[in-house]
Amino acid sequence: MFVLAFLARRLVQGLVIVFLVSLLIFTLLRVVPGDPVRLMAGGMAPEALIEQIATSMGLRDPILVQFGRYMGNVVQGDLGQSFVRPANGAATGGSSFNDATRGERAKVADLIFETLPMTLQLAAVTLVIALVFSTIIGVAGGLAPGRWPDKVAFYVSSIFISLPNFWLGIVLALLFSVHLGWLPAIGYNGFAYTILPAIVLAVELSPVLIRTLVSSVSSQMGQSYVSVGKVRGLGHARIVANHALRNASVPLLNLLGVQFSSLLGGVIIVEFIFDYPGLGLLTINAVLQRDFPLIQGIAIVTSAIFVVINIVVDLVATTIDPRLEY
Amino acid sequence: MSVVSSTPLAAAAELKLLARSIPRRVFDRASGTLGFRIGVSLFLILALAAIFYPEISGIDPTKMDIRARLLPPVFLGPNWSWAHPLGTDQIGRDMLVRSLVGLRYSFLIGVASVAVTLAIGCALGTVAGYYGGRTDTVIMRITDAQLSIPMIILAISVLGVSRPTIPAIILVLGLSNWPVYARIMRSVVMTERRSEYVRAAQVGGSTDLRIILMLLVPLLLPPILFTSVLDVARMMIFESILGFLGLGVQPPTPTFGNIIADGRKYLLNAWWIATMPGVFLGLTLTSINLVGASLERARNSIHGGEA
Amino acid sequence: MTAAVISPTLPVLDVRGLTVGVRQQAGFRPILHDISFTLMPREIVGIVGASGAGKTVLSKAVVNWLEAPLAIDGGEVRFEGADILGLAAGDMRRLRRRVAYVGANPMGALDPTLPVGRQIVEKLMAVVPGSSRRESERRAIELLEAVRIPSAKSRFHDYPSQFSGGMMQRALIVDALITNPALLVADNVTQPLDVTVGAQVIRLMKELARDFDTAVLFVSSSLPVAREAASRILVMGEGRIVEEQATEALIANPRHAYTVNLVEQTPKIWSGGAATQPQATQSLETGSDREVVISLRDVSQIYRVKKRDSFAGVNEVRAVRDVTFDIRRGDSFGIVGESGCGKSTLMRLLSRLELPESGELLCHGGDIGKLRGKGLLDFRKRLQLVLQDPFGSLPPRTAVGRMLEEPLRAHGWRDRKVIRERVLKVMGDVGLAPELYEELPLGLSAGQRQRINVARALVLDPEILIMDETLSALDQTEQFKLLDLFQKLQREYDLTYIFISHDLAMVRKVCNRVAVMYLGAVVELAENERLFFDPGHPYTKALLSAMPVLETRRYQPEDCLLDGEPPSPIDLPTGCCFKTRCPLAFDKCDTISPSLMARGNRNFAACHLVTSQAAPPNSQSGGQPGPRETEYQSA
């Protein structure tokens, strides 16, 4: 029963968040200088044509009116249509805009849900690599504070966090793909194409995981239940495995929830570098093409995913540690 | 019990007291570690180079030299020359000077945007934590919303549609990271607000503003400044990402991002154009991260766990 | 059982020449010197000493549980004849079945994320290989019932955070005794607990130890507490055992100077008589004609906390319920009760850090809830607060003088010279050296720090000082000194004191009038003598009977001591809120909540058993508003 109550409350809060995100990104895109219609119609299009297009698309109404109309559609599941992309085929350049193709522009929702699975696959592989790697390094470091495993964890995380993802992507592609020919790098044509991008993302994600694990494991080992466990007659391995790690996993979980959006930020860049056809590549292209409906749609969908992930994280964390109230 | 043993409480409080003079103790402890020393030395070398080398060498980072194009770094290929230790790019510009000038921009933008972040985040966090209730709820919801979109989407959206000037870049980077500080500040202020010395000040008649400015901020800000060292590095990465996407400081001004983006086109025949600036950036970030992480570890160990 | 095989004449524990210390690079610094003693089967021996005497180190060494940098430098700890200090980790772990330990921090002893019962079973199965899970669970529940944990079956599945400190300590005693050990080391087990709960825990521990034939080493910083438990007492001072005697002999005839001092410093409640009574209190005993400075009228405070299992529901915590009393000029008014009784909430209401949910707090007849701006500032000048924690209550990294100037500046003082003079005068009054003016409070003792706290309150020249557990962090000697200071200041500054405390002995010594609180309500309000010699409420009697003292008790635990713990303030019982623990409860208590009833002139108790036969003639003739007994009726 209280799980339902918790879900209901968190979903309401989540809707508020998604609404705020929509409002923020919508306003931002309209307040900053730069006219998307000019871009769509091409630099040579006459002023009158631009005004005509803009008016017919409702872009000259007050922002709040536009926002109301937009949210009305969003509630019905309609994220609008892309400014520039046709319903079939690749993106068209801004200059090729003409009236005849307007009716066939792609639905934002379709574009997003075509690319989302690719990104989810990338994210899943990333998580597996990052978690396995970080757990080994981080737990070892946390169990031996001040000794060499701890130092390894410290230097590994300090160096990994200092590698810019786009540069690392380029270097790894050069090394493993161009020179060694071990892994494919550009585009997508099978699962192997996910591995290099996932490694780059895992390198980006690991440092925070390692640091959190080191500090939470070592602080759990300093808790009195650990030393009291010894005098109660529990073995060291049992105390670590059954109790300390269990407690230390809660901060890690919470971190994963919060880190989601920065992971996604990395996804955007990495997909761009590797030309990996996921949500990130779609985002970059949308921004570079000033495709407002698409940017908005992506922001709404990602914030919704963020909300869902954090609800799941909290549910799991509460099952582990009942003190965290729903 | 009527005969209260004073030691456990006194000992716990003594620890708390030691934690109170944090900045000095943290700094002392951190500066004894190897990581911190490596970081500081590396940073000083890079900083001195960035400050002096471009002017001393007299090389203009934007000057083309067709005869000296695509020279490799020293020892790393045919035709290298000591005149261009890190080689040259496709139009013969000196890679070392370009990287060092890029470092200047990157670092300054990083520091400035962290300052913006700190100011906004700490102000909102303090207000939310001190007053609580509805103010808190509103601020925290905005914080959640901001946290739920990747800052990079926000930054590239804004900079993609407007013109990326340096102040705009600083503002966008600064605005996209404040929620982290708002959350930290809120939680520490919430704890301190209930502490006895704040209560004593309230009963003594001090106003809220006086308590915040005279008692809380001087106490709570320094540990957060330690955290923000790490964020300078993060911001520098974001600055270079923006430059890489063409949304950072515009050419011909060299930045890590735009040099690497340029070099990507020549990856197969002139690998150093894309990779060398990255090594520089990576070294700078490593130096900052080593310092920042040492400070944070020192702070955590003095606090006895997570702060 | 193996215990039966051992001959009863052989000691369970035989410590010989034990020396323990801290081993660091600088060398070895001993903490315990050459400790030797024995413990026979089924015997309970107390170890008593001031804090810092090395008691905890000794109790850890005895169970072979020292952690670096603590190290053993010599001697033996023989358990059932064999030295255990050299045992390998695995062998020692198996021996934990026979050697059990309970410490002073019940709340941190178990993993907070797993149910209590499950962890007890885990321990049992770990140290007694081959025990079945079902059998272990049955036994755990059985023992939880034996230590009177209500509905033990469902409590078995509760998490540590859902247990109160007292319940947790009882569960840990179960955890220690479930393997039927021959030796239990109980290190300050009652220290974090309220007196009535602590007394229960000792009683249960003695019962179980007897049932299980377990010998107990009972370590405590309080001689009266150890007296409750032990038949023989070892006194420790600075790492050495200075005296050893049978309990009653030790108290009647302490030999070592250290022990003499320990016995003398233990507060006396009944046998001290008028000598311990401050002069001022005596003369004020009957003065009901003094001006009323603070007056509470049906003050209630409710906190709303989110309900755990619902969408938008809130629970109402009734922290303070319909409190009414008057405090007169020159009073030393005591508010006593155990943790959770609402005294801290009352402190926040009195000092206007919070506004009450309902009712009025009047200061010189004006409602302090309505004060704003200048009026509020004036009130702040009149009433000041001295807090509990000598460390947390001083702003860090601020010079002492600066700290004491702050209230003056907040009240609009500007002239630096005048401010400085005023601060120096007050520092002198509370016994702080003027050199401290520019110093940081680093390194000052708890007592010195509390003087700074008092000075900060006094610097505004207030009429009323609230002392919120001000002395509870200090040791006996410091307490005596500060109490003297308080009396001196009361004369010099014409102060009215409100002491908020859990310590009845302190209240007995300094307060002329006392309110006893239970679950947010005042259950008894009386003059000092009457409260301690003829309490009207069964809860007051229980408190007095649970007080650890060395003198002959007026109220015996067997007659008065309570079972269980206070109910949750969220879910108050109907009728009398004390009925769930009251040994005298009868059917009327189930339905009707008793009002405060007069017992003579100025004494009141909220109990149906108080016969208000003697309608107090003086209470009307006094002409003062006084407590309006008819309105005490709680909702």
TrEMBL record, chain A:
<feature type="domain" description="ABC transmembrane type-1">
    <location>
        <begin position="116"/>
        <end position="317"/>
    </location>
</feature>
<keyword id="KW-0813">Transport</keyword>
<keyword id="KW-1133">Transmembrane helix</keyword>
<feature type="transmembrane region" description="Helical">
    <location>
        <begin position="12"/>
        <end position="32"/>
    </location>
</feature>
<feature type="transmembrane region" description="Helical">
    <location>
        <begin position="190"/>
        <end position="214"/>
    </location>
</feature>
<dbReference type="InterPro" id="IPR035906">
    <property type="entry name" value="MetI-like_sf"/>
</dbReference>
<comment type="similarity">
    <text>Belongs to the binding-protein-dependent transport system permease family.</text>
</comment>
<protein>
    <submittedName>
        <fullName>Peptide ABC transporter permease</fullName>
    </submittedName>
</protein>
<dbReference type="GO" id="GO:0005886">
    <property type="term" value="C:plasma membrane"/>
</dbReference>
<dbReference type="GO" id="GO:0055085">
    <property type="term" value="P:transmembrane transport"/>
</dbReference>
<feature type="transmembrane region" description="Helical">
    <location>
        <begin position="294"/>
        <end position="317"/>
    </location>
</feature>
<dbReference type="Pfam" id="PF19300">
    <property type="entry name" value="BPD_transp_1_N"/>
</dbReference>
<keyword id="KW-0472">Membrane</keyword>
<dbReference type="InterPro" id="IPR045621">
    <property type="entry name" value="BPD_transp_1_N"/>
</dbReference>
<keyword id="KW-0812">Transmembrane</keyword>
TrEMBL record, chain B:
<keyword id="KW-1133">Transmembrane helix</keyword>
<feature type="transmembrane region" description="Helical">
    <location>
        <begin position="209"/>
        <end position="230"/>
    </location>
</feature>
<dbReference type="GO" id="GO:0015031">
    <property type="term" value="P:protein transport"/>
</dbReference>
<keyword id="KW-0812">Transmembrane</keyword>
<comment type="similarity">
    <text>Belongs to the binding-protein-dependent transport system permease family.</text>
</comment>
<keyword id="KW-0813">Transport</keyword>
<feature type="transmembrane region" description="Helical">
    <location>
        <begin position="34"/>
        <end position="53"/>
    </location>
</feature>
<keyword id="KW-0653">Protein transport</keyword>
<keyword id="KW-0571">Peptide transport</keyword>
<dbReference type="InterPro" id="IPR035906">
    <property type="entry name" value="MetI-like_sf"/>
</dbReference>
<feature type="domain" description="ABC transmembrane type-1">
    <location>
        <begin position="103"/>
        <end position="292"/>
    </location>
</feature>
<keyword id="KW-1003">Cell membrane</keyword>
<dbReference type="GO" id="GO:0005886">
    <property type="term" value="C:plasma membrane"/>
</dbReference>
<dbReference type="Pfam" id="PF00528">
    <property type="entry name" value="BPD_transp_1"/>
</dbReference>
<keyword id="KW-0472">Membrane</keyword>
UniProtKB/TrEMBL annotation, chain C:
<dbReference type="GO" id="GO:0016887">
    <property type="term" value="F:ATP hydrolysis activity"/>
</dbReference>
<keyword id="KW-0547">Nucleotide-binding</keyword>
<dbReference type="GO" id="GO:0015833">
    <property type="term" value="P:peptide transport"/>
</dbReference>
<keyword id="KW-0813">Transport</keyword>
<dbReference type="GO" id="GO:0005524">
    <property type="term" value="F:ATP binding"/>
</dbReference>
<dbReference type="Pfam" id="PF08352">
    <property type="entry name" value="oligo_HPY"/>
</dbReference>
<dbReference type="GO" id="GO:0005886">
    <property type="term" value="C:plasma membrane"/>
</dbReference>
<dbReference type="InterPro" id="IPR050319">
    <property type="entry name" value="ABC_transp_ATP-bind"/>
</dbReference>
<protein>
    <submittedName>
        <fullName>Peptide ABC transporter ATPase</fullName>
    </submittedName>
</protein>
<dbReference type="InterPro" id="IPR017871">
    <property type="entry name" value="ABC_transporter-like_CS"/>
</dbReference>
<feature type="region of interest" description="Disordered">
    <location>
        <begin position="613"/>
        <end position="635"/>
    </location>
</feature>
<dbReference type="InterPro" id="IPR013563">
    <property type="entry name" value="Oligopep_ABC_C"/>
</dbReference>
<dbReference type="InterPro" id="IPR003593">
    <property type="entry name" value="AAA+_ATPase"/>
</dbReference>
<dbReference type="Pfam" id="PF00005">
    <property type="entry name" value="ABC_tran"/>
</dbReference>
<dbReference type="InterPro" id="IPR003439">
    <property type="entry name" value="ABC_transporter-like_ATP-bd"/>
</dbReference>
